[in-house]
């Protein structure tokens, strides 16, 4: 994984896990890799992974069972809400960027409509 130097690594790891959950790569109830395993895989300090897991647990996206590991929530509604919130953030960032380069709301809608019609 290539990390962005403008954003803390633990947040980028959280975002990676969140995307895996909403895309179904990680399903409700799935066990996450161990802290050491993912730290080795991503070549980061295990404390960074631990912090990501703790923050995800604070958001109720994962839960830890002592001696068993960390698991994805089984709350389907929470996962749906996460997906909607991520989509809203993507849209907001896109709209802000488009407005910053001079596009009007109407022009943005036209561009999106054309792209959707093209099916790409």
From TrEMBL:
Query: Pfam families from the xrefs?
Result: GntR
Mind telling me which SMART domains this protein's record contains? Answer: HTH_GNTR
Source taxon at top rank: Bacteria
The yes or no answer to whether the keyword Transcription regulation is present is: yes
UniProt entry tagged with the keyword Transcription: yes
**Matching PROSITE patterns:** HTH_GNTR
Its keywords, alphabetically, are: DNA-binding, Transcription, Transcription regulation
Gene Ontology molecular function, alphabetical: DNA binding; DNA-binding transcription factor activity
InterPro entries attached to this UniProt entry: Tscrpt_reg_HTH_GntR, WH-like_DNA-bd_sf, WH_DNA-bd_sf
Coiled-coil ranges (or none): none
Start and end residues of each HTH gntR-type domain: 7-75
What protein name does the entry list? GntR family transcriptional regulator
Q: Which organism is this entry from?
A: Paratissierella segnis
